[in-house]
């Protein structure tokens, strides 16, 4: 998610809020990583899935894919970037194969972005 804030406010006001936003996004990136690792899933009807608490989850053979999920944020020239990513070579296949049945990055962003957007609005009001 790309976040750009136009600087039309006094410098001190903006600097304080920019620092608050950085702290918030750092925490949200960690939450997204944790959520992704807990909610990575397999499609129904395959021998690679288990049911737990009403959710279908990956059955790990090596835990490498799940452990490689990484949430982070970076400050850029234009604002901040918050992300969740796969750290294995086959991560793109997990996200796209079987109509996204193994996808976790997209669902993680979909779950977290509305709350993040709402908080950004509150920080910069």
Task: Give a brief description.
The chain has 125 residues and is α+β, with helices and mostly antiparallel strands. Helices cover 50% and strands 19% of the residues.
Percent strand equals 15-25%
Unreliable residue runs: 1-5, 44-49
Category from helices, strands and their pairing: alpha+beta
Mean pLDDT, rounded to whole units?
Answer: 79
Distance between the termini: 20 Å
- Determine the number of helices (DSSP H or I, runs of at least 4 residues): 4
Number of domains: 1
> H/E order of the elements?
EHEEHEEHH
* Overall helicity: 40-55%
Characterize the main sheet: 3 strands, antiparallel
Task: Give the overall shape.
Answer: elongated
Radius of gyration: 17 Å
DSSP E strands, number: 5
Strand order within the widest beta sheet:
1-5-4
Biased composition (Basic and acidic residues): 46-57
Region (Disordered): 37-57
């Amino acid at each position: 998610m790309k976040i750009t804030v136009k600087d039309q406010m006094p410098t001190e006001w903006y600097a304080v809020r920019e620092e608050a936003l950085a702290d918030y996004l750092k925490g949200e990136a960690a939450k997204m990583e944790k959520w992704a690792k807990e909610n990575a899933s397999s499609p129904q009807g395959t021998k690679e899935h288990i049911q737990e608490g009403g959710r279908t989850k990956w059955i790990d053979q090596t835990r490498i894919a799940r452990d490689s999920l990484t949430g982070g944020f970076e400050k850029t020239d234009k604002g901040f970037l918050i992300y969740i990513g796969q750290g294995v070579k086959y991560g793109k296949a997990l996200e796209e194969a079987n109509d996204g049945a193994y996808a976790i990055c997209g669902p993680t962003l979909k779950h977290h972005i509305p709350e993040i957007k709402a908080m950004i609005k509150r920080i910069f009001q």
